[in-house]
Specification:
The structure holds two protein chains of two kinds. By secondary structure, chain A is mainly beta. Chain A has strands at about 5, 10-15, 20, 25, 30-40, 45-50, 60, 70-75, 85-90, 95-100, 105-109. Chain A is globular. Chain B has no helices and eleven strands. Chain B has strands at about 5, 10-15, 20-25, 30-40, 40-50, 55, 65-70, 75-80, 85-95, 105, 110. In chain B, strands 2, 4, 5, 6, 9, 10 and 11 form a seven-stranded mixed β-sheet that branches. Chain B has a four-stranded antiparallel β-sheet with strand order 1-3-8-7, with no helix packed on it. Classes of the chains: A mainly beta, B mainly beta.
């Protein structure tokens, strides 16, 4: 069955420290993977897509098909990065996404 | 441009009742999808509509239904409410729905007593 796993419910780091939010997936086809973010009192929004291969707000994510992972990384965390992060997988054409349970990132000074 | 608008934002119902939630997508977006968010199960896909046709459907019972109108606005209905239907229902719109790039509304929080 298709599944997205985010093993950490909470990740706490200090400002300036590197961040890695883990995401593992199980999927039988060619997946499209995404990271969505929800800042406090804001809507859930797209952060980045694996096919774009771009860096957004300093975050990058590489799809590793061998390890079935799509970890989100940032070399130097900022306090404004504190938010809930969701990894998601697109299982077919359209907008039917499978979401992980989410990881709360807390960045403190 | 205006974002995705969902109404009502909060509502309380009792078991056995039915509820209708409404979603107005971003102008020009033709795809509307619905998700249920609960603390235990997280975000789960309910269904997607594109050009008034249901294109995808999640693993929910038939009590959950939806529709889309010619102006792309969408409604979802839950009949014979159960306590476990208490959740935040999120609507998301997309331009063509061919990718997973979704624009979410703030949600409708349903409490079933």
């Amino acid at each position: 069955a298709q599944r997205v796993t985010q093993p950490e419910k909470l990740l706490s780091v200090f400002k300036g420290a590197p961040v890695e939010l883990k995401c593992n997936y199980s999927y039988s086809g060619s997946p499209e993977l995404f990271w969505y973010v929800q800042y406090s009192r804001q809507r859930l929004q797209l952060l980045l897509r694996h096919i774009s291969r771009e860096s957004i707000k300093g975050f990058t994510a590489d799809l590793n098909k061998g390890e079935t992972s799509f970890h989100l990384k940032k070399p130097f965390a900022q306090e404004e990065d504190s938010a809930m992060y969701y990894c998601a997988l697109s299982q077919r054409a359209g907008t039917a996404l499978i979401f992980g349970k989410g990881t709360t990132l807390s960045v403190s000074s | 441009k205006a974002g995705v608008t969902q109404t009502p934002r909060y509502l309380i119902k009792t078991r056995g009742q039915q509820v209708t939630l409404s979603c107005s997508p971003i102008s020009g977006h033709r795809s509307v999808s619905w998700y249920q968010q609960t603390p235990g199960q997280g975000l789960q896909f309910l269904f997607e509509y594109f050009s008034e046709t249901q294109r995808n459907k999640g693993n929910f019972p038939g009590r959950f239904s939806g529709r889309q109108f010619s102006n792309s606005r969408s409604e979802m209905n839950v009949s014979t409410l159960e306590l476990g239907d208490s959740a935040l229902y999120l609507c998301a719109s997309a331009r063509d729905g061919l990718t997973g790039e979704l624009f979410f509304g703030e949600g409708s929080r349903l409490t079933v007593l």
